[in-house]
Specification:
The complex is a heterodimer of chains A (301) and B (210). Chain A is α/β, with parallel strands linked by helices and 301 residues long. Chain A is 42% helix and 12% strand. The radius of gyration of chain A is 19 Å and the shape is globular. Chain B is globular, with a radius of gyration of 17 Å. Chain B is of the alpha/beta class and 210 residues long. Chain B has a seven-stranded mixed sheet. Chain B has a three-stranded mixed sheet with strand order 5-6-9. Chain B is 31% helix and 29% strand. At the A-B interface, strand 1, helix 1 and helix 12 of A face helix 2, helix 3, strand 7 and strand 10 of B.
């Protein structure tokens, strides 16, 4: 058997970054604020956890500036579970991102759930060794983030509400945008790129393939197994659950139910069993009543 | 009569391979197998195993996949089929689920391959890498190895066949009808390793029919 030296190895390539996103398909990533919650998530079958200092529902209720987690909490979570550990940095806060990379997190979420650190520029993600996930509301925003180096996209929804309507809206907007590109003639694509505010090369690729070049997950407002299965049937490749689990009556049971629902998202009989007698979901806030600053999804551009 | 006469060779040319589809990159395996002219079925329930000629365990999170396989009765049903000689191919998490021994872990598994593996043994995501390797089994052209939070095979029973290695460590192994890789051939365009598994399925089916 031929041996190949270490020097031929290439670490943190585009393929290993998107590759990890591929491994996370078809599962649930849960927001956790400490090691104890991380263990509950992992035992329920979460495929990864997202470390943050407060879940979105609390960020909403308490207000103030929401920032990256304390490294101590991230370390404790990494020690408590064997599944990938993700963590959030503020939009444009590339030093928080550098710190998260130094902590060896597996994925960084440059997230609108935290208070943005830059009102104009997102983090340049290409040069980081850790892969990034970013939120989007439509195709243009998704392609701008991929152009900056994001290896995974998630539709934003409206975090911390338990109201799935925005998640649905953003995912439909994104897939509708892709379908519209597919219907265009070649000479129309440059104008489409201009109108989307998206890199031309990525517009060409999406028009040709009919999908994003990175996996596309769903986030923001998923509170029940049925919500999770709805996002999967609408074309999400995995689901992020934030406040929906740990703001409910029985987090361990609900976490497990959401995991089961994503695994069996096309099987209504199973979904009925899974949804049975789960206790109270998170209370929730209707997004229709949210105005201006209360809408987290409008952060980022 | 004519129909029966043509039925046997036709069915032997067309294989139906199940891909365990609870979580992970199962879609990549399905695309790869379709490219090789194989029919596939997503496996989420024990009944999905009926009539399959082979099974693939994808990459993903081994704890999550193992837990869901057990919860929905797939582990037990698949073990029963494996005892009858059903070929199974696991990559990365799939290999972990096939291993008899997983260092520092009591997670659910199939335990069909007499190896001991260590999870995430190269380190966390920033240590994920790609490289090239060659193996006499696959000819002159090097293969691509994409290793993502990959496991390492720490010990191997002597009857396990080593098909490829990296730094003298086994990365692709076979034991009877069980094939396991520590990396992700499904993330590349190179179909040789999947072709090898399909050939295994073909040979084993032919043997069972004769």
């Amino acid at each position: 058997m031929t041996d190949i030296s270490w020097s031929e190895r290439q670490k943190s390539t585009w393929r290993t970054k998107v590759g990890l996103a591929e491994m996370l398909k078809g599962g649930v990533i849960m927001d956790v604020v400490n090691a104890e919650q991380a263990v509950i998530a992992a035992e329920a079958g979460a495929q990864a956890v997202m470390a943050l200092e407060r879940v979105p529902a609390d960020i909403r209720a308490q207000g103030g500036v929401a920032r990256m987690s304390d490294p101590k909490l991230i370390k404790e979570i990494q020690e408590a579970v064997s599944i990938p550990v993700m963590a959030k940095c503020r939009i444009g806060h590339f030093v928080e991102a550098q710190i998260l990379e130094a902590l060896n997190v597996d994925f960084i979420d440059e997230s609108e759930v935290l208070t943005p650190a830059d009102d104009r520029y997102h983090v340049e993600k290409e040069s980081f060794r850790v892969p990034f996930v970013c939120g989007c509301r439509d195709l243009g925003e998704a392609l701008r983030r991929i152009g900056e180096g994001a290896a995974m996209i998630r539709t934003k929804g409206e975090a911390g509400t338990g109201d799935v309507v925005e998640a649905v809206r953003h995912l439909r907007e994104l897939s509708g945008g892709i379908r519209r590109l597919q219907g265009l003639r070649r000479e129309e694509l440059m104008t489409a790129a201009k109108e989307l505010g998206a890199p031309y090369e990525l517009v060409l690729e999406v028009a040709a393939t009919g999908k994003l070049p990175v996996p596309n997950f769903s986030a923001g407002g998923v509170a029940t197994p049925a919500d999770a299965a709805l996002m999967m049937q609408l074309g999400a490749e995995a689901v992020f659950v934030g406040s929906g689990v740990f703001k409910s009556d029985n987090p361990a049971r609900r976490a497990r139910a959401v995991v089961d629902a994503v695994a069996h998202y096309r099987d209504p009989a199973k979904l009925a069993e899974i949804s049975y007698d789960l206790g109270e979901p998170m209370v929730g806030i209707s997004t229709a009543g949210l105005v201006g600053e209360d809408r987290l999804a409008v952060r980022g551009w | 009569m004519m129909q029966q006469g043509t039925d046997v060779p036709t069915s032997l040319r067309t294989h139906l391979i199940g891909v365990v589809s609870f979580q992970g990159d199962f879609q990549r395996h399905i695309s790869m197998l379709h490219g090789l002219g194989v029919e596939t079925r997503e496996v989420r329930n024990p009944t999905d195993l009926v009539g399959l000629h082979g099974v693939v365990l994808p990459g993903g999170e081994s704890t999550t996949i193992g837990m869901l396989m057990e919860r929905y009765g797939v582990t037990e049903a698949l073990k029963a089929r494996a005892a009858e000689g059903l070929p199974i191919f696991g990559t990365c998490a799939g290999l972990i689920l096939l291993a008899e021994d997983i260092l520092n872990s009591t997670q659910p598994r199939l335990g069909l391959l007499p190896v001991s593996v260590e999870r995430n043994a190269y380190g966390r995501q920033v240590e994920s890498f790609e490289t090239r390797f060659s193996s006499p089994v696959f000819g002159e052209t090097a293969l691509e190895g994409v290793f993502i939070r990959a496991p390492r095979i720490r010990t191997c029973s002597p009857e396990v066949e080593l098909l490829a290695a990296l730094d003298q460590e086994p990365i692709l192994v076979r034991h009877g009808a069980i094939l396991g890789a520590t990396f992700h051939p499904e993330l590349t365009q190179d179909t040789r390793i999947h072709r090898y598994f399909v050939d295994m399925v073909q040979t084993i089916r032919a043997k069972q029919l004769s």
